Amino acid sequence: MSNEVLVFGATGQQGGSVAAALLQAGWRVRALVRNPGSKQALALRDAGVTVVKGDFADADAMRLAMQGVYGVFSVQPSSGQGAELGLSDEDEERFGIAIADMAVHSGVKHLIYSSTAAVSSGPTGMGHFDSKLRIENHVRTLPITATVVRPAAFMEMLLMPGFGLDQGEFNFFMRSDQPMQFIAVQDIGAIVAAVLADPLRFGGTTFEIASAAATGDDLQALFSQAAGRPITYSRFSDQVLAGNDFLRRLAELLDAGALAGRADLGALRQIHPGLQTFESWIKGPARYSFEKALGTPGAWAYGTADKN
Ligand SMILES: NC(=O)c1ccc[n+]([C@@H]2O[C@H](COP(=O)([O-])OP(=O)(O)OC[C@H]3O[C@@H](n4cnc5c(N)ncnc54)[C@H](OP(=O)(O)O)[C@@H]3O)[C@@H](O)[C@H]2O)c1
Q: Does ligand 1 have an atom closer than 6 angstroms to the CB of 203?
């Protein structure tokens, strides 16, 4: 049987983490990329990944890429990443469903679909979350061994420009005492590698994945300690939330309990003993990005209303 896995999005965060973890675990990795000459694609090739050219919209290339692989890791970008991607929620859903259907027709043995923890309580009313729930629901009807992982918000998202770190502040969704789960992108790959290694245990399951939880106060302590100077945490002000529909709806979902995350961190640590804590993450994989965020001014990308 083939020991090769086709990884979508391998030039991006989740797929990159999965490709690296699978290589480390001894799998052969194939990656479908739009531009095999890009810096990220060349780095994948140098790491030992078989890079093939394709696009979610090119069914023939996708089918060819899937031939003979044991497993498929499926992730799609979403409209929630910004309007400049030019991707609608319908596109995301169509691509996610097409990949799952092709995996069945290509005889793939194990399909891993990466969704979002936001849909664990059901539909959210936000397009880029609910698209994933519809893909999940489709995957669960298919005659294939499939696992749906639902990542929490990425720790890496905390270091995007516009949250105030360059000004000695940090503004985000949680209240000071409200916990929210996050996942270090590196852990996504390690967990997916563990899932692929044990289809009998993980086939047919859907579960949230996260690394750790933090309140606003926890992030204030973490960032202040790491920066060596005070970083004051505040929830986005009512004025900011009133002026930005996207942020307001996310804050409402958090308050309603839908975004706080319910991953079983103890069970995940057994699956992947190296699960990051916020402390290990900020000293390790995030050290460079954190230093950069401290010196990078910027505005939150969702400057206008409703880009979900
Ligand atoms: N940020 C969070 O906190 C969070 C939490 C849970 C879930 N999510 C979900 O995670 C997903 C994004 O994952 P990510 O952050 O890993 O994405 P990413 O870093 O933005 O990477 C996107 C990947 O998709 C590839 N891609 C884009 N368009 C493509 C196309 N038409 N055909 C083939 N490949 C294409 C890109 O490749 P090239 O550009 O190189 O071609 C890249 O490898 C979104 O659906 C988001 O909702 C995010």
A: no
